[in-house]
């Protein structure tokens, strides 16, 4: 009995530690994701000069109209996260774009994932992209700020510190992989660091006119 009690006592710290660890929600393959993938899988053989990869912020951009005369592929999926992007890179690589813009991470923050988990996924994404697309110019973009005063959902509010920490990690990864990093806050953030009120209706997504300014800004940065 004494040995059993001693053994149980030894297990308690480990069990308590395990309970303290944050739950990692790695899900991504909902009905919308799968529907978009059914479409994208049929388009992977089409060549692209420019490919935009990300979540709803990317998906909502009318890139092909904003960049007339260019072969543009929009590979945004609403609600996607770093787990979802990592899972669909084979199709991206198959398309062999000349230039790729990567913007992902805000949905990971929204579901409360630790920064180190997001950055680990980000690292894996860059490892696979750089290995599979050695001739592609990969541009890494910062995660956009949010505007708390316009956000309808409390779980998304007060995430500015998380956004900053994630972007700081992304900057380091871009440097490590020798990739171009673009700080979108230069364009989209107001003096307080929030998403500019005239660029958003819900505090997280961009209004159509914002994409016009985005493309113009990318051109001033000589990335388009």
TrEMBL record:
Residues 1-18 form the signal peptide. The keyword Secreted does not apply. Residues 52-211 form the SGNH hydrolase-type esterase domain. Keywords: Signal. It holds the Pfam family Lipase_GDSL_2. It comes from Chitinophaga cymbidii. Gene3D superfamilies: SGNH hydrolase. This is Sialate O-acetylesterase. GO terms for molecular function: phosphatidylcholine lysophospholipase activity.
